[in-house]
Specification:
9 strands, alpha/beta, six-stranded mixed beta sheet, 255 residues, 2-enoyl-CoA Hydratase, Chain A, domain 1
């Protein structure tokens, strides 16, 4: 049951924290309010210290349906929304804690972006994953920061230019997720992975994660800053206006 808290935080053991998106009645769609709560939860986890593993999950039948398209039609909120999405991705990627996305149901658009920013991804067998932004007149610019680091270029082009939804098994095949697990084992397997991750020396794990990020020729935050401009520009376009209108009217957009 949703208690009104858009992002819930649970500390299950010393150094292990669960961050849960809690807007199940809206498929955990990323409204500015939810995103602000997520940023707050991630920032507090970083500032508190001592958090070694963070599991990101979604309440209800799906992980996250992506951007709240109802809210996205209000262009006055676009800049704030884009800023919060970029900040969430930056915090997930930059925290010294190892991040694990436990994904079920579906992870689409911004939801798949949150997943992609995590260090590990476990997905339930029936999970559908995709970046359909181009079908809404939008650009998956922010998530591109992570996909280009994780996947072959051909696979990035397939995901973003086709914008089609793929299965968890296909996502595993191309390296987008680490493991496909039975739905009723997702929580247990996530906890098992968290325990295995905490077997490493804390400082060594944090330093290793930092080095992996820094060995790329350009940092995540620099790429996110560049991608943010493209994301926001697309949000205010005529194509985005038509794409979202078509989505709500349940018809094909007229490009």
């Amino acid at each position: 049951m949703n208690d009104g808290t858009l992002v819930r935080v649970f500390d299950l053991a010393r150094g292990l924290r669960i961050v849960e998106l809690n807007r199940p009645e809206k498929r955990n769609a990323l409204s500015t309010e939810l995103l602000a709560s997520l940023v707050e939860a991630l920032e507090s986890s970083t500032l508190e210290g001592g958090i070694r593993v963070m599991i990101l999950r979604g309440a209800g039948p799906i992980f996250c349906a992506g951007l709240d398209l109802q809210e996205a039609q209000d262009n006055t909120k676009a800049a704030r929304s884009a800023e919060l999405i970029a900040r969430s991705l930056s915090l997930l990627a930059g925290t010294s804690a190892v991040t694990v996305a436990a994904v079920h149901g579906s992870a689409v658009a911004g939801g798949a972006g949150l997943m992609s920013a995590c260090d590990f991804v476990l997905a339930a067998e029936a999970t559908s994953i995709g970046y359909p932004e181009i079908h809404r007149g939008l650009v998956a610019g922010l998530v591109m920061t992570f996909l280009r680091r994780q996947l072959r270029e051909r696979d990035v082009r397939e995901l973003l230019l086709l914008g089609e939804i793929i299965s968890a098994s296909r996502a595993k095949e191309i390296g987008l997720i680490n493991e496909v697990v039975p739905a009723d084992q997702l929580e247990a397997r996530s906890m098992d992975l968290a325990c295995r991750l905490m077997a490493g020396a804390p400082e060594a794990v944090a330093r290793t994660k930092r080095m992996i990020g820094e060995l790329w020729h350009r940092g995540v935050d620099e790429d996110l800053h560049w991608a943010h401009e493209h994301h926001l520009s697309a949000r205010g376009s005529k194509e985005a206006e038509e794409g979202m209108r078509a989505f709500f009217e349940k018809r094909k957009p007229t490009w």
